[in-house]
Amino acid sequence: MMTITRVLRSYSFHRAIVAGLSFGASLIGAKLLSSDQFSVLVTAAFVAKFLQITNFGAVSGYFVSRYSGTESSGTLSAAEEPRFILYFMVQLTAIGAVVLGVATLWLPAYFLGAAAFLFLVPLFVVEPSLRYRRLFSFSLLPELILAMGLLAVSLTEAAGLMQDRGADLYFWIVAFLCGVVIALALAKCGSRMLVGKKSSLSHKKYAKIIVTGWPVYFGTALFVLASSADRLLFPLYGTDEQISIYFLAYQLCMGAMIFLTAINFVNTVNLGEARKSAEAFKSQLVRKKLRLALLVAVASYSVLGIGGLILEFYFLPDSFSGLSKVVLMLGLGLSVFFVSSAVTPIVAYFQRQIPLTAGMAIVAVVLFINNGLAYWQGFGPVWLATGTALALVLYGFFAIWHTFRVIGRLPETT
Q: 308: which of 126, 316, 400, 407 is 20 to 30 A away, CA to CA?
């Protein structure tokens, strides 16, 4: 009984549930919505999550400050945490407002996503402090809210209600659900979420926290930028059908890799705790994590390939022709990358991540060039997926090699 209860309360279980709902919402949307409506909504969900990149190291600095010890210039005390949350909220809100303004004037494809991001800002802001307390599941709420927005629009359109007003409905559903979550959080935690006792966190120290986290953030941001390059640029020049295929394929890949990404998410904290204990890492520990990730990745990729074929030929409309090819290519690249991510956090905690950062910078440049070629030559989603897969596979192998090279130079624990 205790085992069942533990599983039901676990982050991995909650992540699987949310991934399943998001996966289902995407399939229902692809089935029921027109290509133009579906492409607008999946682009909005992507932009809303992508704009987390504008934290500029605040999240990374939070964790480095927590785990690196009192000697760190960016160390954050418990009393200062609420003020940190307030500063972080102001930062993300201000940047989100600027992006919304730019989208309004020049990039309408990003407008709905930028608006959704502003509603999600409070959730993104408090998540690091909750993750530090091992409340991992809170991080799933933005994904859940965006998926529910897509599902509600799909069902409404299928029922013949609010025809051609899917974007408006999506906007208000996301706003309402975010408001409910924020109200519940405030009711439970009260003003402690934003105002701390004897909080003395200054603007200068907040800046130090960001600077402390910048080395880790920069590598992560490069990965987000590189892995998102196709979805960031494709809506600006692709057709509605092409955008729908590519975004659905990516959603299918992430859904299939859910257990692998869940392992890696928890590893970030687990490896940080091991680093804080001042014990040297045994290479056996890293190999064990790598083997587990590889096993999960092989199983996930197999299911993904079979599922992609079934969906294309037996479930989805003809406008999704070629989906299985995109799924197989993207899935390969993401599988190798996520396998490497099972062990690479250890490199960041020992501040040896510069080679990985440089590698990811190269990946980002390659993928932007790949998108440029696709734009100028009129290539479609299969080309984009192939270029992305090749870049991520090469990076993944390099990251694994570098990780073992780093731990091979550390003293073994007896």
A: 400
**Structurally, how many domains does the chain consist of?**
2
- For tokens 């995109």, what's the residue? 326
Let me know whether 200 and 258 are in one domain.
no
Q: What is the dihedral of CA 27, 32, 36, 40, to 10 degrees?
A: -50
Inter-residue contact 245 to 381 (CB < 8 Å): yes
pTM summary value: 0.84
Helix (H, G, I), strand (E, B) or coil at 396: helix
Match 């979550």 to its residue by tokens: 181
366: Cβ contacts below 8 Å, ≥ 6 apart: 387, 391
| String of DSSP letters for 205-262 | HHHHHHHHHHHHHHHHHHHHHHHHHHHHHHHHHS-HHHHHHHHHHHHHHHHHTHHHHH
Locate all alpha helices (DSSP H) within 315-413, ordered by sequence: 323-341, 345-349, 354-377, 381-407
Domain final residue pick, 182, 216, 250: 216
Q: Give the whole-angstrom CA distance, residue 128 versus residue 133.
A: 9
Please report, in tens digits, the pLDDT of each residue of the chain (414 residues total): 557 777 677 777 887 888 889 989 999 999 999 999 999 999 999 999 999 999 999 998 888 777 765 444 556 766 778 888 889 999 999 999 999 999 999 999 999 999 999 999 999 998 888 877 777 788 899 999 999 999 999 999 888 877 778 889 999 999 999 999 988 877 766 555 555 555 567 888 888 889 888 877 887 888 788 888 889 999 999 999 999 999 999 989 988 888 888 777 766 666 666 655 545 455 677 787 888 889 999 999 999 999 999 999 998 988 899 999 999 999 999 999 999 988 888 787 777 888 988 898 899 899 999 999 998 988 899 999 999 999 999 999 999 999 888 877 665 543
Query: Which domain-ending residue is among 184, 216, 248?
Result: 216
